[in-house]
Specification:
Elements lengths: L6 E4 L4 E5 L1 E4 L3 E3 L14 E2 L1 H9 L6 E3 L2 H7 L3 E3 L10 E2 L2 E2 L7 H5 L2 E3 L4 E4 L5 E6 L6 H15 L1
Antiparallel strand pairs: 1-2, 3-11, 4-12, 5-7, 6-7, 8-9, 10-11
The site of one iron/sulfur cluster (SF4) has 12 residues, from loops.
Length: about 150
């Protein structure tokens, strides 16, 4: 899922999106279509809290280290493991099997909301550009990555 305009990274199993966000001045509306696209062929950054939350629920072999570019863009030391078909290992029948304890990356998607900026993922079909949404529910889950992006903007 993520950060900075339109970059893609080949990883030998099709293209994986590490960046498809655009900055907006107003929060658009959003209604998830349940397409599951955000759970496939994405870099899904994981922070320490995400790892701890999933580990405390008994999951172990679900993460790997980010590479240097991914770390620079996200500030996340880890990312979700993907299956050979590019899907997140927690995606089952197009639904998240760990929804209640899913990572912050998944909680805030398709937005990154900082103190003074809003980013929207261009590839999410659930965005309603002609409506206005509320950024507040996405702020806490955006906190870590928003801090990183703020630093990159400066
Ligand atoms: S890509 Fe957007 S619409 Fe599709 S499942 Fe993810 S959040 Fe929902
Ligand atoms: S943890 Fe769940 S919501 Fe997040 S990418 Fe995986 S399947 Fe999708």
């Amino acid at each position: 899922m993520v950060e900075k305009g339109g970059e893609r990274e080949g990883e030998g199993k099709g293209e994986v999106v590490i960046s498809d966000y655009v900055r907006v001045t107003k929060m658009p509306g959003f209604s998830c279509t349940l397409c599951g696209d955000c759970c496939r062929n994405r870099v899904i950054p994981l922070y320490e809290e995400d790892i701890e939350r999933l580990k405390s629920a008994g999951y172990e072999d679900f993460y790997e280290s980010t590479d240097s570019i991914e770390f620079e863009l996200t500030g996340a030391p880890y990312k979700m493991k993907l299956r050979k078909d590019g899907s997140c290992i927690f995606l089952e029948d197009n639904m998240c099997s760990v929804y209640e304890i899913r990572p912050d990356t998944c909680r805030r998607y398709p937005f990154i909301v900082g103190e003074d900026f809003i980013l929207v993922s261009l590839s999410c079909p659930g965005i309603k550009w002609d409506e206005e949404g509320d950024p507040r529910p996405y702020k806490e889950a955006s906190r870590k990555i928003a801090g990183k992006i703020r630093a990159l903007m400066e």
